[in-house]
């Protein structure tokens, strides 16, 4: 039996070479459809490499049985995969953590600076011929030095943003229920806060939590109303961590000063009214979008897939218990 891998979208180098050396690789292409994925899974596939817009639920996993052994996402976030359902079916799920930490933290910092200093609003003014000359009171924003940055979710990316924000002279607080270890270089400079306090006191809030049922709409209408009216909200995690409809009202009615968003609740769509909010900086999910990071993610994704084919736990497996009864034999 020839090993078979399905990628819903083409992966960058070096993934194609690595994968095709070990298996027959089918790439669905431009607009992966659920029907096409299901049809291929029914024919027999060992490893599925979906994208973060592809929902991998119990029904889809069932169409891959009995052969499907691994789902290797090309992302650090795997909220699109029903991991408990995969575990029940003996299917391992793997992701690509670590290699996109700096790129995503850079993106969060960019959104933070652009929102605080109103750079995109200013860009629009320039293009519309609205700049009539320097004035002392024109387009004043929030100064980062001494402002309090509240980081929600203090894992790899939250910590990488903290390092960058310290270089801007910001004060840093974080909220994280999992109480992650804080590296020695950051420990003297960051304060742990309850989320409620952080929301009320921070001048800027940046979200770095995974999306799950405990974080869906973590920033809801009540949280937005408790933020300072001068505050900036940045999101490079997953759109649904914010109630986007409530956020539009917050931006329109001045409950908060601005937002820098890279992710949306119903990507690629935006909540009605968001596009008209000049106090929102809107990026099209670019967090990990650098040439180097995307190549590193491709390599990790491929290494995960190759390990699964070899009957070894993928290096970045999120549910090793799926194979607690023993790994499947190698397939070549
Ligand atoms: C991108 O959003 C990722 O989770 O890697
Ligand atoms: C930011 O734009 C602010 O006015 O605080």
Structure description:
Strands 8-7-6-9-10-11-12 form a seven-stranded parallel sheet, with helices on both faces. The chain has a five-stranded parallel sheet with strand order 2-1-3-4-5, with helices on both faces. It is an alpha/beta fold and 332 residues long. Helix 5 packs across helix 7. It has eleven helices and twelve strands. The protein folds into two domains: 129 residues, NAD(P)-binding Rossmann-like Domain (Rossmann fold); 182 residues, Rossmann fold. The structure holds glyoxylic acid (2 copies). One glyoxylic acid binds next to loops.
SSE layout and pairings?
Layout: E1 4-7, H1 15-20, E2 24-27, H2 34-43, E3 47-49, H3 58-64, E4 70-72, H4 83-88, E5 92-94, H5 101-116, H6 119-127, E6 148-152, H7 156-167, E7 171-175, E8 190-192, H8 195-201, E9 204-207, H9 221-226, E10 232-235, H10 244-253, E11 258-261, E12 280-282, H11 291-309
Parallel strand pairs: 1-2, 1-3, 3-4, 4-5, 6-7, 6-9, 7-8, 9-10, 10-11, 11-12
Helix pairs in contact: 2-3, 5-7
The structure holds glyoxylic acid (2 copies).
- List the helices and strands in order: EHEHEHEHEHHEHEEHEHEHEEH
With strands numbered from the N-terminus, the spatial order across the biggest sheet is 8-7-6-9-10-11-12
Q: How much strand?
A: 5-15%
Q: What small molecules are bound in this structure?
A: glyoxylic acid
Average pLDDT rating: 97
Structural class: alpha/beta
Taking all Cα atoms into account, the compactness measure Rg is 22 Å
Number of domains: 2
Poorly predicted runs: none
| Sheet with most strands | 7 strands, parallel
- Estimate percent helicity: 25-40%
Number of DSSP helical runs: 11
Count of strand segments: 12
CATH fold annotation of the largest domain: Rossmann fold
């Amino acid at each position: 039996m020839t090993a078979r891998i399905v990628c819903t979208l083409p992966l960058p180098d070096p993934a194609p070479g690595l994968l095709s050396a070990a298996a027959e690789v089918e790439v669905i292409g431009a607009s992966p459809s659920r029907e096409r994925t299901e049809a291929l899974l029914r024919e027999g596939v060992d490893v599925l490499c979906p994208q973060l817009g592809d929902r991998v639920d119990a029904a889809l996993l069932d169409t891959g049985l009995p052969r499907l052994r691994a789902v290797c996402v090309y992302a650090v976030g795997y909220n699109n995969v029903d991991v408990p359902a995969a575990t029940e079916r003996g299917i391992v799920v793997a992701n690509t953590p670590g290699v996109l930490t700096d790129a995503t933290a850079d993106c969060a910092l960019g959104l933070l600076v652009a929102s605080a200093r109103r750079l995109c609003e200013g860009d629009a003014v320039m293009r519309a011929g609205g700049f009539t000359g320097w004035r002392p009171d024109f387009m004043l924003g929030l100064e980062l030095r001494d402002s309090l940055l509240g980081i929600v979710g203090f894992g790899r990316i939250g910590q990488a943003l903290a390092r960058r924000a310290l270089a801007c002279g910001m004060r840093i607080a974080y909220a994280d229920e999992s109480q992650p270890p804080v590296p020695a270089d950051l420990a003297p400079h960051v304060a742990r806060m309850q989320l409620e306090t952080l929301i009320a006191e921070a001048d800027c809030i940046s979200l770095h939590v995974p999306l799950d049922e405990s974080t869906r709409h973590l920033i809801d209408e009540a949280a937005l109303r408790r933020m300072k009216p001068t505050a900036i909200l940045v999101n490079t995690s997953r759109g649904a961590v914010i109630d986007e409809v409530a956020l539009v009202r917050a931006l329109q009615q001045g409950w908060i000063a601005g937002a820098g968003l890279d992710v949306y609740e119903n990507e690629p769509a935006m909540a009605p009214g968001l596009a008209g909010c000049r106090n929102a900086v809107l990026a099209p999910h670019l967090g990990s979008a650098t040439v180097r990071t995307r190549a590193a993610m491709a390599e990790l994704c491929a290494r995960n897939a190759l390990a699964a084919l070899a009957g070894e736990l993928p290096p970045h497996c999120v549910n090793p218990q799926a194979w607690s009864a023993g790994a499947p034999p190698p397939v070549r």
